Amino acid sequence: MRNGTLTVLARVHPARRGALQDLLDALERKSIPVIPDVPGLHFARVALLDCGAGESYLLLAADFVADCRQRELDARFVGALLERLESHRAAARVFEHLFQQCEGFPGLADREAAGAFLLARRRRYSARHVAFPYRWQTPESIHQAVRARQALERLLDGPSSEPLVPRCDLRSHLASARRRAALATLSPSNALLTWKAKRQARAYERRLREGPPTQGIRWDEAPRFDRRRIAPDDQVQNPLTHLVPLDGHWLLRLRLFLVNLRLCRYLVGLHQIQGIHFARWVIFKGAGRRYLLFLSCFDGTWDGYIGAFFDDLAVRALLEEVWRGSQRFAEVRTLDTFKAWILARQVPTPIFYSAHRAQRLGIADIHQALQVQDLTEEGLASYLRSGTCGPEVAQMSIRAALVELARWRKQGGRGHASLAATPRRHPAHGHPRAPEGRLLPFPADRARSDLAGEVVAEG
Hints:
four-stranded antiparallel sheet; alpha+beta; 44% helix; Alpha-Beta Plaits; five-stranded antiparallel sheet; 2 domains
């Protein structure tokens, strides 16, 4: 399985922009389903983006997994989506009515032409973060793991005749994630971002010591996003759609490339901010200028999510690289002005699909379910538990990356290069020594390697 992210931006007829907005508002009020259940689809959304000068775009964004080559991911998903719409007539009528407000849409009667329309208007992401389970797990396998955890809880609470779901083999996926992290860690470009991030973190610390400005900073721009539309505090899997014009910094694509390298170094995800399912940035041109689109799905409150971005110095350094050059971002100095800047450019997400929302699954719940399903895989369990640790533990070190690639190359680029598990005691989590007979995600002779234990301690 491979993870795919589809971002489609279809230009709206200027004369039909008002009708499209009214339709989206009605769909949001009545909670009418628009996107059907597509195999492998985790999250999807539809929103209206205004770029000024009377130019608007209809956004269709999706995060999914599919069993195919990387170059075929988008076409495979679009074909599966259109096929599902044929069997869901109510959703197909609404979906077709939405895109009929866009220029050049041929309709759903000709499925091949409709697929070509969507694929021709896709935009590639510049940087992204995807939580580890969504990189290869299907919604069905995640729900299966959750049912296994629930069955285990019922078994512990009392007698039960329900069989536990057999665990799935995760070793190849973990090995692939470690190889990507190793390549990102050893990239020469990563040193530049590390130096700039440390420099910006020192600048932020100096600002904190100096305190806020004596007169304070007031944000004079009225928010375009109604705070009443922010999801309640007790919800999980909340969408955030943010659109900001750029002020012509041609180095932004390079900075986003460096940020994407840094995000690849984390096997599980951004550990400084708990509860991020996915996030990505997309650059596109509209109304004669460039825009930066940010899409995210998070757990918890909106204030807590935005505050976590601002409070953590390392994350602030990354965001400085991403949003520097965005309109009025240079004026952000305090948490209140950062929230006001986000609200001023946040776009409502009237249509949001999640394959896991009915089960109210947060990212922590999914990690725990995978732990229960894979208790014999001590290595993967340690990485899932490392979500509560800082980046110095969860992020791959340079030495670990060198050892990882050396072992993988020694095997001729085949097999599992995972060093994630070890029978030694982990210094950060205190895992006990693996007992005799415990199944490990690597051969027994590797389990006795002291070097493997040192790598895990650093990784």
